[in-house]
Structures are given as structure tokens and as C-alpha cells.
Amino acid sequence: MKSFFAGACLAAGLLPLAAAAAPPTPAPAAGTVRLTVDTRTETGPMTPFWAWFGYDEPNYSTTPNGKKLLSDLAALSPVPVYVRAHNLMTSGDGSHALKWGSTGMYSEDANGNPVYDWKIVDAIFDAYVERGMKPLAQIGFMPQALSPKPEPYQHQWKPGVRYEEIMTGWAYPPKDYAKWSELIYQWVRHCVERYGQAEVESWYWEVWNEPDGHYLIAPDRRQAYFKMYDHAADAVKRALPTARFGGPHTAVAGDFMEEFLKHALHGTNHATGKKGSPLDFVAWHAKGAPKVVDNVVQMGMDTHFRNLDRGFAMVAKYPELKGIPVIIGESDPEGCAACGMQTNPENAYRNGTLYASYTAASVARLYDLADRRGTNLIGAVNWSFLFEDQPWFAGYRDLATNGVDKPVLNVFRMLGMMRGARLKVGGDGAHDADSIQREGVRGARTDVNALASREGRQVAVMVWNYHDNDIIDAGSPVEVKLTGIPAKRATVRHYRIDQEHSNSYTAWKRMGSPASPTAAQIAALQKAGGLAQLAKPSTVTVRDGAATLRMQLPRQAVSLLVLSY
Asked: Which GO molecular function annotations are given, in alphabetical order (predicted)?
């Protein structure tokens, strides 16, 4: 069989150095970006912190498309995927809408006695557990019967409407802490009875979302949240002393989070009167800030990284928190998943390869940012799932549209194939985490870099070509030199996300962007949405422990090279 790697570079393929007996390999093309991977030097574990996902609308979990996507996410990860969802305690009949969901787990009878109903929330958690997934279980939001201002309760928000208008009766602290605490206790006990103690011990529990912002309506948000946190933690721990509970899931790592850490470590507990509060992990959110500049979307990865690093630095300040697990509860290019590109043109990046290359570049740098601060990062939640009953490719921040996978999902498929230890990567065409944090990826220089891992006799190298500006061009010739390979030959598989591969969006556009694709078109889109190889696996000769692979990497493209020997 003719080797793919001897094929034309025109196909954006991969060219290995030839064996000694073969004709000399042409010199690298002018402008080649050279990357090196030392397979003998480990830089840390390939912690799959990316295998965490979240969304506002928990009831999507039980729709056919939702179950399909959950299965896809469970299948791509080498470890159990964690899922974080809002509205698990919100009152309602389980109907879904943008930025809304409900389970109706709590109501009261005519005499004010609690009535618990676990049916809807059980169906949501069942959808996770049946697939080997685990909840990052959020105690939120306030049931209508416990809200001090229950009307209006369900919002009617839609894209283009002021974000603050979603904050209705569900966004208040409880009017009765005894009943609220008992509800939490009963929910956790029910989960233990339904799923078993060992299973629930593997979950994480939290209370509320972004209490430093609009999500909590109170005269003094800090004190209101600290009181809610203490009572919720006490209820969870009474139900299951070995449960893992943490927070504060603030929108930013700012003064609110600092005061919370001080309260949890040294303050007076509102529920017990003792010093300090349970804190089994620390969590906050970090977002970027895209904008439109001269009619071109420009991403804000620098803002994203600064928000990450502020939190890492804050945790590192406290000796008592050394080694504590850290979860970035939402880590995304911007803040509103349900704001489509029609109302927010800066979000037009979401359908195509810019979102994919951004995700590859930012996930890889999270390792560097966490390592620099000595952070025990265990989770970084990608806040994107799907949106039911919406137009095809409407520009929401989602992983799939109408049951069809979008390009960004294939980045997570690539990450799922990277196991074991991270390897030392060098290069001459990359921005590092520090420079991106200072100034982004703008101007004439693009970010061409790699993340590499090794497990046993397999090495995986993810290479991306990223720039903040949403412009696509032919990209750069790239040379990847791997050293320290204890073999004479290796099998290479090359996976690619670009305009021609692993890209349902370009396939949909070529169809004429149908508003209602036919069954045959949907089947074609589903096929186009999977992770594609550029060609069949081939063999590369290893000379003196080294193999050099060359490719043309278009702008916004992501490649995964998997070498087995």
C-alpha cells in the first residue's frame, strides 16, 4: 500500500523523514515552524481536567439529542466525565427553555409542610450515572416555595434581552434556612440510597452560581452567600460526612472570592458556630472577551488567561490551601452560551474552526498556568452542551447542533486520545502562556504550538495554528521532531480538524445552509462531524531515536499525531 506520508503536501498531509536508503528528504519549506518533542522528558501528568462540561438547561440531559451527546462525551474520555448544570432545584415541570430548567423537587402542602419529588432530578442524574459520568452537583436555585419573593418566578428571557432580566424569584436566598437545609439533607440522602454511598462519594457538591454577580439577589451578597454556603455544607455533610463540598464558583477571582476563602478558613460558621467551613475544593470562573474589530471577530484569550491566573495566584497565597483541588467551574471564550451570533455578532466564532483552535490552545496553556502556581487543577468546565428547538448552526456556544457534532467537539476527542504523562515541547513559532496573558495572539505572528503525551509505547502530539482574529489562510509549514523513541519504525495516525476535515459546519454551508436538512443531508452532516483522519495509518522510519514529521497546517487547524512503536 502506498504510504500516505509519501503523498503530496498539497493534501495538508504529513511527511516523515525518509530512511537512509531512500532518496534525501527535501529541506523544510521557507517559513517552516519547527517544534520539538522530547519523549524522554516528562513535565507532569496528562490530567484530563478538560473532561468536565456544563450548561444552564439541565432538562436537555434527557432529550434524545441530549442523551446522544452525553454518550459521545462519555465515550471520548479516558476517565469519568463530570457534568455541572444549573437549575437542579428550580421549581417547574421540567420543561426546557434558554437559560432555564427545573426539576420541581420541592413544594409545600396547604399547611406549609415539605413535599419532595425526585422524579425529574433522578432522570437527569440517571442519564449521567448510566454512562459512567458524575455530577458536579449544584445546590441551586431557590425553589419557589422557599423564595422570599416568589413572583415573578420563571423568566421569559431570549437573546437580545437584557441579561439581568433572567434574575427572578429563583435568585434569592431562602426565607427559611431550616426548611432549605432539610431539603438539601433529604436530597443527598436520597442520592446515597439510589446510587450508593461509594458512587456519591465520587461526586462534588457546591451551592449556587456566581454569587458575586446577578445570580444572587441580596442587600449584602457576600454575607448572604457565606450563610447559604455554611448551611448547605452542613446539610450535605450531615447526610454524607465523606461528601466533597466546595466553592465559591464566583464569576471572577476577585475580592468576593478572597473574602470567601478567609471566611471558609477562619470565619465563624453560620450553621455550626464553629471556626471555618468545609472546603474540599476551590472553584471560580474565567472567561475571555471576544469583540468585532473592522468586521472581523477578535478573540480575547488574554482576558481569559488573566482571569485564570488571578485565581491560581489567590489560592497559592494561603498555605492552608496547598494541594487543594481546584475546579474552574466555567472556562470559556466568553460568558453567554445562549447568546447566538444574530444578536451577538462577536459570537460568530462558535460554529467553525476558530472555536476548535481556541480550545486546543487554551486547554494546553491551562497546564502551564496551573503548573507555574503549583495548582492542583482537577477540572475546567467547558460551559457548552446543546440547545434544543433552535435553528441549525445558530451560533450558540454548543458542542452539537440538532444532533450533529460541531468542530470543537473533535478537539475533546483528540484530548481523549492523549494519556499518561505530558512531554517537554519546544518550538520557535509559538506564543507562550505569559505572552498570551499579556497581549493575546494578535498582529503578524500566529500561535503554532503543541501539547504532547506518552503512555507506554504510544506518543500523541496535538498541534494547532491559532490566532485571535477570525481569518483563515493557508497557514504554515510545520516540522515536528520527536526524539528519544526506542524503536526503528513507528506507525503514525494523523487526525485533523480544518475546513475539509472533522467539520460539519462547512459541509452544511456547501449544502446551501438548509434550514431543514433532509434525512440524507443530516446523515451526511453527522458523518462530516466526526473526527477524521487525513489518510490511512502509515509508517515512519526512526533514525537515532528521532523521527521528523512535516505538514502544512492551515490557520485555525488542529492536528493530532499518534505514534505507536
From this structure: hydrolase activity, hydrolyzing O-glycosyl compounds
Joined grid coordinates for residue 163? 441579561
- Reading the block at residue 195, the C-alpha cell is 446510587
Please choose, from the candidates 284, 288, 293, 279, the residue with its C-alpha nearest in 3D space to the C-alpha of residue 311: 284
How far CA 268 is from CA of 147, 180, 263, 277, 310, in Å, comes to 25, 20, 7, 8, 26
Helices (H), 318-422: 353-373, 407-416
- Strand partners for 247: 282
pLDDT along the chain (565 residues), means of 10: 32 36 40 96 98 98 98 97 98 96 98 98 98 98 98 95 91 98 98 98 98 96 98 98 98 98 98 98 98 97 98 98 98 97 96 98 98 98 98 98 98 98 88 93 93 98 98 96 97 98 98 98 98 93 96 97 97
Per-residue buried b or exposed e for 516-550, using 16+ beta carbons within 10 Å of the residue's own CB: ebeeebbebbbebbebbebbeebebbbeeeebbbb
* Selected catalytic residue, list 42, 57, 130, 210: 210
Burial 129-142 (b: 16+ CB within 10 A, else e): bebebbbbbbbbbb
Rounded CA-CA distance 312/376 in Å is: 9
Q: Which domains does the chain have, with CATH numbers?
A: 4-44+417-564 (2.60.40.1500), 52-280 (3.20.20.80)
Say whether 130 is catalytic.
no
User: Do residues 89 and 145 lie in contact, with contact meaning Cβ atoms separated by under 8 Å?
Assistant: no
* The pLDDT value given to residue 30: 58
Tell me the residue type at 219.
P
Using CA atoms, how far apart are residues 467 and 71, in angstroms rounded to an integer? Answer: 32
SS3 433: helix
How many CA atoms within 13 Å lie on the side-chain side of 352? 20
pTM (two decimals)? 0.94
